[in-house]
Fold this protein.
Amino acid sequence: MFNLKNSGKITHGNFQLIFAIICITVILIGISGKINLGFANIGRLILFLIGILLVAIFIEINHNLTLIIDSKILSEPGMITKQTENFRQISLIMLGFGVVMFLMAFYFIGQRKYAFFTSFASISLWTFGTLIGRTINGVSINTKGSMEWKFMKDEEKISYYSQLKAWLDGSSNNTISSIQQDKIINQRVIFDDIIRKQTKLPKRFKDTINSLDESEDMLEYLYSIELKSGYTDWLDGAERYIEDGNIRNTNMRELIKRMLTINVLDILLQELSMPDWRNTRLFLQILEEKIKSERYLSGHSLVNDTLDNRISLQSKFSSENKLSKLHEDMGNFVRFVSWQALQWEEYRFSSGWLNFLKTQHQIISNSSTYNDVNIEHPLVKHIPKVKENYQEWCYTISEVFSNRRIPDSSIIAESIINEVRRMDTGHFNSDLVSITYWAYDKLV
């Protein structure tokens, strides 16, 4: 039997003990009547009720009593898709009940019926305390694993992991459940947020970039070290399932790793396109890993299948080898074009067309037709206009290479592209890349 329970995590035992002591102390002071807060008889009741509120918060945070209700509701067919809605509705019901009890308590304090006041106020504040604890747990569960997973038995989790493995293996008889889909999407969002936050902290992001650049296996380092803090209970369990089941050397872990980091790679590529970073080798390595991930995951519904199946000339990268002059020139060119496209307001970053641009550059760099640039070359006349409108041009070719129609805003670029197309040379894409490179050569 696999043990999927949490292990080795830092507990907050000391904090819990201190909080529990505070709760009990406040209640005992209230009962004793030693302190009345200047309100005569009602002062000690206020202290007692504050203690009740704190105890309710403490119990709910540590035992998730109300979330058991949510898990039972979510187990009903079709309810998983209404998780957030159900959570809010139950919370609103609790809030309404607490307010009614609080108003009743106020009524009885006006009648000087202190026993009734204490009873209704206790119920009200217990409800409010439970609601506060529930809200805290709800936030935690939304980021570290959803409610229905938290209360699932180990045997059920193992069944889900087995189903996940079969789905990743491409079994035609297996589909992935909505629970697993939610898990994967949630985990990817967490990883994306981690990297996005790092990009806003230049010093921290620089450390990350340097570590990735120096690592033997960039993607493994990214997944198991840089993103480790964002592992949900579901992913921790998947890692233990793979480890304990002696299936670490199968493709399950590799597929999970690539599926969860595929968007992170795009975030890194977008950031490394900026001229500040100047890490061309890592940029090319990440671009290659992104295309490789798309190939690994082709056909899985949780991946945006933007794979460009046109020829891709791959290179081997490691922390020890350096780029050749040809590769460095090519990488600097692709980074520059990516950065220029990012300056155009309508552009939304994608990496598929950058890989195609890289491949086309590798092809034309070995062709005498494009290396011999002179005034008689039919494409040379377009260089000045492309150079003057380079951001528009880069955005437009990103649309063309992504097999989308030329946008209406690309007036100058469209006229040049249409003229190149009418030339009908038989290598239209190479013609566009050549013009792009020649203009780049004039700009840098």
Observations:
- The CA atoms of residues 3 and 341 lie 49 Å apart.
- Residues 13-151 form one domain.
- The chain has a mean pLDDT of 80.
- The chain is about 70% helix and 0% strand.
